[in-house]
Amino acid sequence: MGIETALPTDVMLTTQLQRVINWSRRSSIWPLPFATACCGIELMATACSRFDLARFGAEVMRFSPRQSDLLIVAGRVGIKMLPVLQRMYEQMTEPKWVISMGACASTGGVFDTYATVQGCDQFIPVDVYIPGCPPRPEMLIEGVMAIQRIIDEDRIPPKGPDGKRVPLGIAVSPNYTPKPQPVGLTVGS
Amino acid sequence: MAAPTDATAPIDHPALARVKEAFRDRRLRATQFRGQVTLIVEPADLHPIMQFLRDDAACTYNFLSDVTAVDYLHYPQEMPGRFAVVYNLLSHDRDDRLIVKTFLDPSIPTDGTEADPALFVDSVTDIWPGAEWTEREVFDMFGIRFRNHPDLRRILTWEDYPAHPLRKDYPLRGRGERESYRVLDRTSS
């Protein structure tokens, strides 16, 4: 952590038990990769050394739902796969969180057909949506950090002025300005 | 690749001459497109002709690349029947492909899954064992059944799926199959 080097060795810190629990949970998220399409490739890249999800304590990919506490739905969910996804969500132990990664998991994407579920949030609870097709690893890390901020607030009394929760302000605004559309064709006659 | 020929030119293919010689009294038709020859046979003649195409010394189509089907509903051109079962044959010895088609017309409405006595063809699994799964896929997607198939079950959709989804009268977005699941919320698991 680094904090122990700045403090005397016999120091004592006081805090709330819930904050210690939240701190340990947020620092050791064990994701369950439900990778069914190309988002899973970005998910693998995120865990590898260039992007290094281990910096956020979330590098231990668990392939058993009983050992994991973050379900990352990465890719389109077929109609035959949805009962499997629901079963895996049910088998995860509390507390648990869900990330819907990419356009297909969140909305069905371009696969508007009889065989594809139009957004896994219709059938399981989702905490964080990550846009993109597929999202870049930075975007997934942003989503994991959003999950960490959600865990930070877990069972902590609301801090807002009117006794309500302060919005997490997680939504990331785009860092570009869309050009006006439609544009004229530059090919053909 | 042979040069494109006009539609009235005689189709010169050695296997067609052999088939015509061996099956003189059967109704045989053929088409050609960009050097690719298609033989169209009656459904009742399919099995003996396929057996001949594999065993005849001048044909030797020892490999069945694919079995698929086409639904010609709303096709802009007049076709010999609504459904076509398409067999893609390959001879490794002569490096030659031949497409064999047979046309079927349904006798009952095609929006259900009940067995239509007009949509039956003989299975070729006894000639090429690899046809087993491709014929199951044709059955699953088009509802065309194969006599003497060892294990004619659905292969992609589940057992009680209420339609054959690649028929053209089946809506692209399905009839609610992708919405009919239980919904998990945060308290139900």
Describe the 3D structure:
Chain A has 189 residues and is of the alpha/beta class. Chain A has a single domain, classed as Rossmann fold (3-Layer(aba) Sandwich), CATH 3.40.50.12280. In chain A, 29% of the residues lie in helices and 10% in strands. Chain A is built from six helices and four strands. Chain A has helices at 3-6, 17-26, 39-47, 82-91, 102-107, 137-152, and strands at residues 31-35, 70-74, 97-101, 128-130. Chain A has a four-stranded parallel β-sheet. In chain A, helix 5 links the parallel strand 3 and strand 4. The relative contact order of chain A is 0.15. The mean pLDDT of chain A is 88. Chain B has 189 residues and is an alpha/beta fold. Chain B has a single domain (5-188), classed as 2-Layer Sandwich (Beta Polymerase, domain 2). Chain B is built from three helices and seven strands; from the N terminus they run αββαββββαβ. In chain B, the strands form two sheets. A five-stranded mixed β-sheet of chain B has the order 1-2-5-4-3. A two-stranded parallel sheet of chain B has the order 6-7. The interface between A and B is medium-sized, with 18 and 19 residues.
The total beta strand count of chain B reads: 7
**Helical residue percent band of chain A:** 25-40%
Summed up, the helix count of chain A is 6
What is the radius of gyration of chain A computed over CA atoms, rounded to a whole number of angstroms? 20 Å
Tell me the series of helices and strands of chain A, N- to C-terminal: HHEHEHEHEH
Biggest β-sheet: strands ordered side by side in the sheet of chain B: 1-2-5-4-3
**Most extensive interface, chain pair and sizes:** A-B, 18 and 19 residues
